[in-house]
Amino acid sequence: MSYSDGIEYECLQCRLRERAEGVLVSTCRRCGGEMRNVQPIDG
Ligand SMILES: [Zn+2]
Description:
binds zinc ion, 3 strands, mainly beta
Protein backbone atom coordinates (compact mmCIF):
# COMPACT_ATOMS: atom_id res chain seq x y z
CA MET A 1 0.00 0.00 0.00
CA SER A 2 1.44 3.24 -1.10
CA TYR A 3 -0.93 6.14 -1.26
CA SER A 4 1.08 9.09 -2.39
CA ASP A 5 -0.87 12.28 -1.93
CA GLY A 6 -4.42 11.57 -1.01
CA ILE A 7 -7.09 10.34 -3.36
CA GLU A 8 -7.39 11.24 -6.99
CA TYR A 9 -10.75 12.11 -8.44
CA GLU A 10 -11.91 12.33 -12.00
CA CYS A 11 -14.87 14.19 -13.38
CA LEU A 12 -17.20 11.96 -15.35
CA GLN A 13 -18.08 14.80 -17.70
CA CYS A 14 -15.00 16.86 -18.44
CA ARG A 15 -12.40 14.37 -17.22
CA LEU A 16 -10.86 16.90 -14.93
CA ARG A 17 -8.55 15.23 -12.49
CA GLU A 18 -8.04 16.55 -9.02
CA ARG A 19 -6.29 15.24 -5.99
CA ALA A 20 -7.76 15.66 -2.58
CA GLU A 21 -6.32 14.87 0.77
CA GLY A 22 -8.70 13.59 3.40
CA VAL A 23 -11.59 15.37 1.76
CA LEU A 24 -14.47 13.86 -0.12
CA VAL A 25 -14.86 15.48 -3.50
CA SER A 26 -18.17 14.89 -5.18
CA THR A 27 -18.67 17.87 -7.44
CA CYS A 28 -16.41 19.10 -10.17
CA ARG A 29 -15.42 22.68 -9.59
CA ARG A 30 -15.02 23.23 -13.30
CA CYS A 31 -18.25 21.97 -14.80
CA GLY A 32 -20.22 20.93 -11.75
CA GLY A 33 -20.29 17.34 -12.89
CA GLU A 34 -19.98 14.26 -10.78
CA MET A 35 -16.54 13.40 -9.47
CA ARG A 36 -15.48 9.82 -9.12
CA ASN A 37 -12.49 8.59 -7.18
CA VAL A 38 -9.85 6.99 -9.29
CA GLN A 39 -8.32 3.87 -7.90
CA PRO A 40 -4.83 3.17 -9.13
CA ILE A 41 -4.56 -0.17 -10.80
CA ASP A 42 -2.09 -2.13 -8.77
CA GLY A 43 -0.95 -5.57 -9.70
ZN1 LIG B 1 -16.00 18.47 -14.72
